[in-house]
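chain below, 159 aa
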Amino acid sequence: MSESDGVAWLTEPEQRSWRAILRGTRLLETALDDALHDSGLQLSEYEIISMLSESPSHRLRMSELAAMVVQSRSRLTHTAKRLEARGWVAREQCLGDRRGVELVLTPIGLDAVQEIAKVHVQSVRDNLVDIMTPEQFQAIGDAMAIVRDHLDPLGLTDA
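prediction:
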């Protein structure tokens, strides 16, 4: 690897930072997923019911939800089926557009997400927020917002 090949290779400090970001995000996601294990839920499933719980009327168009949680529509459909089997969500035609489908959080699902949120938030605190200074946490949030905005310039995912 030389500079003459036209590639701006990472410097040693950049490589160390990149590897820390990559490994750290994977370990964090695993820790958050593990914390939800006793509830029988995966982090990706929790994220969906959490987004629904925060939306007006506890419903979102499937295509919009897929963009928010950065999943393909087919993956979201499979996840929705698992959540439907628990009675936590239902798929319904869009209220304003009969062609679309919305995922709707059921009252049972709302109760579940309110309980599971306690475990999730504690895990976020234990594995990220509370191990940093407020300034470090803010810096990571600011840095990842730059990445998000670069990769999602149309703002299709949740802010």
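The two ends are 38 Å apart (CA to CA). The longest strand covers residues 89-93.
thats it, cya
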